[in-house]
Write a structure and sequence with these properties.
- The chain has 1 helix and 9 strands.
- It has a single domain, classed as Sandwich (Immunoglobulin-like).
- It has a 6-stranded mixed sheet with strand order 1-9-8-3-4-5, with no helix packed on it. The protein has a 3-stranded antiparallel sheet with strand order 2-7-6, with no helix packed on it.
- The radius of gyration is 13 Å and the shape is globular.
- InterPro entries: Ig-like_dom_sf (IPR036179), Ig-like_fold (IPR013783).
């Protein structure tokens, strides 16, 4: 998936409702850094936008209904592998920013 700098991109989970999933994790890059977590059972959504020297600060949004991740005002520092991990679904997204 390719996107231009300063644009936004949404990484879709492919689910219409997250109630069936107890835990949804979004991880970034080879470091496998946790950048977002949805714990359905605890009714919590946490965005870790201060990791990796703050490169995601104020740029991450998680859709409360689907769990999809949106990255806004994207830069080349956001190029890389994004991993979606749930109890049932595992997806990888390779993002190239130019």
């Amino acid at each position: 998936m390719s996107v231009m700098e300063e644009d936004s991109v949404t990484l879709n989970t492919g689910v219409t409702e997250i109630m069936d999933y107890a835990l949804i994790l979004w991880r970034f890059a080879a470091e496998n850094t946790l950048i977002a977590e949805i714990n359905v059972l605890a009714y919590s959504i946490t965005v870790y936008d201060d990791v990796l020297d703050g490169r995601f600060r104020d740029r991450l949004m998680v859709d409360h209904q689907t769990g999809s991740l949106t990255i806004t005002s994207i830069t080349t520092q956001h190029t890389g592998l994004y991993k979606l991990l749930t109890n049932i679904v595992r997806k990888n997204f390779t993002l190239t920013v130019y």
